[in-house]
Amino acid sequence: MKPLKNYVPNAFTMANLFSGSLGVVFAVQDKLELAAICVALGIFFDFFDGFFARILNASSEVGLQLDSLADMVTSGVVPGIVMYQLLNHATGLPWGDDPLIKTGYIGFAIILASGYRLAKFNVDTRQTTSFIGLPTPANALLILSLPLIYMYSDYAFAKACIENPYFLLILTAISCILLNAELPLFALKFKSWDWAENKIRYLFLVASVVLLATLQYAGVPVVIFLYIVLSLVFRQKEVIV
User: Fold this and answer.
1) Which pLDDT band, with edges at 50, 70 and 90, does 177 fall under?
2) Which residue of 77, 111, 151, 192 has the lowest C-beta tally within 10 Å?
3) Is 61 part of any domain?
4) How far, in Å, CA of 74 to CA of 41, rounded?
């Protein structure tokens, strides 16, 4: 019989999957705020399943596959349905009211791109300490921030963008591209507390706290953009050195 510690990471993964399943229900019901809360909880559990797998030395092949399956629901299906709802609420496209060719169906492209990205991650040996392409949890936070910005933000320009179907369609395309692009991005995995080894992570975390504190939900897309820019800048410095 396996030691009890071996089941701890998978318990967190199952909590992620459960949170994502609830998120699907709320997203389908157009309760996008509750869907966002469920996704945030799922990502929280997703972080700690890997954390405990490392510190307890309890990694397993089953855990790896289970983690991707949970992420597919929480960070793939939910944001795809949320984009579907946002596109259906938007107005201005000539075919938007036709039930057979609803614009919202295009949002499901995020689900497809997320599934492909997770499948690649499981077989890509380059992504053990960093990422190639935007991680699905980061993409999910980007998409789920939109309804929250619309409901709680005072930024008129941001609200106008979220109401605009062309903006949402372009964002859907960008999301799918970023998920599967050959884009090297750092991972928030601390192997030590050494400044030299983790300075990019420390800088990113401090900047993220400041942005979220000042911009609230509107800070989430800015944080994702900063994540990509910092990854590219530090990657370029490594190449030059």
Assistant:
1) very high
2) 192
3) yes
4) 9
In the chain, the largest separation of any two C-alpha atoms, in whole Å, equals 62
Residue 210 lies in a domain: no
Report how far apart the first and last C-alpha atoms of the chain are (Å, whole number). 50
Cα four-point dihedral sign 88, 94, 99, 100: negative
CATH number of the domain where residue 51 is located: 1.20.120.1760
Residue 27 lies in a domain: yes
Euclidean distance between CA atoms 221 and 219, whole angstroms: 6
Q: How far is CA 121 from the centre of its chain?
A: 14
The CA distances from residue 14 to 41, 67, 136, in Å, are 12, 8, 17
What would the two tokens of residue 156 be? 């008129």
93 domain residue, yes or no: yes
What span, in angstroms and rounded, lies between the C-alpha atoms of 129 and 198?
13
Q: Provide the whole-model pTM.
A: 0.88
What's the number of domains the chain is made of? 1
Q: Going by DSSP bridges, is the β-strand pair 130-132/184-186 parallel, antiparallel, or unpaired?
A: antiparallel
Show the domain range for 59. 4-185
**Highest-confidence range of 93-107, 146-160, 186-200, by mean pLDDT?**
146-160
User: Sign of the CA dihedral 171, 176, 182, 185?
Assistant: positive
Backbone angles phi, psi at 114, to 5 degrees: -65, -40
**148 vs 125: CA distance, rounded Å:** 36
CA–CA distance, 157 with 228 (Å, rounded to integer): 23
